[in-house]
Amino acid sequence: MKTINNIFKITLGLFLIIGITSCEDEAVNFDLNEKVGFTGKSYAIEEGQSQSIEVYVNSQSEANGNVSVEIIPLQDDLEYGVDYITIPAAVNNVVSFNYNSDNNSFEFVSLDNDYVQPASSILFKLISENNDFSIGQAGVQSTQIFISDNDIPVLNRFYDFNDQTNKYGIPAEFTEEIIDGFKTDRGWGLREYGVDGSWAVNASGYGGDAGTENAWLINDAMTLSGQTTATISFDIFSNYSGPGRIKVLYSTDYTSGSPLDANWTELTDYDTQAPAAGSRTWTTINLDVQELNADKFVIAFQFIEATSSSSSSWVIDNLSINIE
Ligand SMILES: [Ca+2]
Ligand SMILES: [Ca+2]
Ligand SMILES: [Ca+2]
Predict the structure, then answer these.
(1) What is the pLDDT of residue 61?
(2) SUPFAM superfamilies from the entry (predicted)?
(3) Alpha carbon of 48 to ligand 1 centroid (Å)
(4) Closest ligand (CA of 115)
(5) pTM of the model
């Protein structure tokens, strides 16, 4: 009887130990297995793209339950429905979805627009409200997405030279380069010979030292970031009918110094639009360059053939350069 009693006690003891161990396991399992966290530290997309934002739930059994995430734009001007949406849709910037073995994410969709913006970013944060899992440790409670703009800035330059009153000077944002061996004492200079007597830039070779002109008026480079089309327009006027003409050229590799060290493409459409030397009529020239594939764009006006004894002069005003 005593033996049987002892066996009973031992069995009861084992049962209790197993029971307690089992309870402890369940408690530990609940703690470890039902925590939700983000899988990615951060994401980077371009405007107009979408991204699955994934979470995981630590569970040895099949986890199934609701997950809620707060969407926190880190720039004030980012707006749900204007700049981004989520699938499923968020309500008051909280997106909720059912987590199960087939679905561990929601979709973030950046909406495309056609204007240039600084890069933006959005923080996603797991919240306990409407969430069936406990939230994992600090490192997985939030994730972030960086959205880069995909719009190409339009570059514009316009010169009416009206505030450029330094007679014979070279206008701001231009340099003059004279090719070695050619006349150095005339060339380009600011004069009040522009439209309606306004200031403009004038090319003349007449007088001074003997020689022939080869003077380049070169606009400071415009830095390109994906733009492919340049549209150029200007007004031009010619005095005197002697030798002397203008060539319009562009370069994508000119840096500084002699233009002969760079590659230039002549815009020969200018010649079909240009007024006759000495015609004394303002003429508007419209030129364009397509399929630009370069890091920069430089335009130049080359004044050639005029001499000290006889030359036509040329006035350029209202120069517009538009690149997109
Ligand atoms: Ca865009
Ligand atoms: Ca944009
Ligand atoms: Ca002017």
Answers:
(1) 83
(2) CalX-like
(3) 7
(4) 2
(5) 0.73
